[in-house]
Amino acid sequence: MKIFIILIIFLISFLNADVKIIASPLCKVEALSRHEIKNIFMVKKRSIANESVIILDSLNRETYIIFIKKFLNKSSRKMKVYWTRMLFTGKKIPPKKLSIKELNSLDTNSSCYLSYVEEKKKPNKWSFIHIK
DSSP label at 121? Predict the structure, then answer.
């Protein structure tokens, strides 16, 4: 019983981290709906308002889990099954996973990138996307 309570407390504190969607400086995207976020990050769409977008996942496992629960309404297991199926059928390739340090050093002058980070760890020059 004690382990269960500790696990619940851990999960509640874990889910309270504030994960935000961010865009590279070249992106003209300022706001997205939850439906658009789901379609873009599951690579069902590759552009927003005629702007081609490259998706980047977080290398941080905790941030990734919070993101998929909050914005995609999926568990990490369901996402793993989804990407395994997409890779096996040859339909899609999962987004590249980068750390905050790699996001900062990324050449953002050539493409529009979208990713997500904890609010307090936003890379320089990247901007937060408003959620409609």
Answer: G
Q: What is the DSSP letter of 119?
A: G
pLDDT confidence of residue 109: 79
Question: Which segments in the chain show pLDDT lower than 70?
Answer: 1-17
**3-class DSSP state for residue 117?**
strand
How many Å separate Cα 70 from the centre of its chain?
Answer: 10
Structural domain count, the chain: 1
Nearest to 70 by CA among 107, 25, 23, 37: 37
pTM of the model: 0.82
Quick check: 66 and 19 in contact, CB under 8 A?
A: yes
Please indicate, yes or no, if residue 11 is contained in any of the structural domains: no
Task: DSSP letter for 91, please.
Answer: S
Domain membership of residue 115 (yes or no) is: yes
Q: Which domain holds residue 125?
A: 19-131
Tell whether 7 is covered by a domain.
Answer: no
